[in-house]
Write a structure and sequence with these properties.
The chain is mostly helical. It contains 9 helices and no strands.
Amino acid sequence: MEPAQLITAFVTLFVVIDPIGMAPLFVALTQGMSADKRRGIALRAAVTAIALLTVFGLFGERLLSFVGISMPAFRIAGGVLLFLTALDMLFERRTKRRQDKTHEDDDPGDDPSIFPLAVPLTAGPGAMATMILLAGQTGASWSWVLAVHVVMVAVVAICLLLWFAAGLMERALGPTGINVVTRLLGMLLAALSVQFVLDGIRGAGYGP
């Protein structure tokens, strides 16, 4: 196990998960929430993402084959779900729902920790496929598989640290800045979701 291989694994997962790009998205998805609720959402999202990526790193291909799901189909499903979240952000539906609630903590449906933060933004089809490819390399030893999972945990931990700083980012941007960022990220998220679908179609052999 060479240091260069670990660096390659880290860079690959860092680029795919994109902790820096996820930080403003977390701010947009948790706009107006209390610091305690944000920390809870961040922790649940991180733990869920680590658990899912661990499962896919160890049993990914066998698991998908067992239930008869191909990776292209998984990408398309993730893209469709992500597009629905993008629509919420573009038309401020999440913000309006919070404003209509006297007690935001009583609204379990307004918790983005599992969807879309953990899945498909952090542990998305790309990250899952990357874990399958890195951990499933031909001749890979258990020490390499363990190292890949340690690298994955490190990348998700970076996401968590940046999410914890969401309050500072929100105060720096202000209400107007948050509104602009939310709309912009909603558009980018919509484009990303379409890309997931296109990749899935291409992976299934129906595209160029």
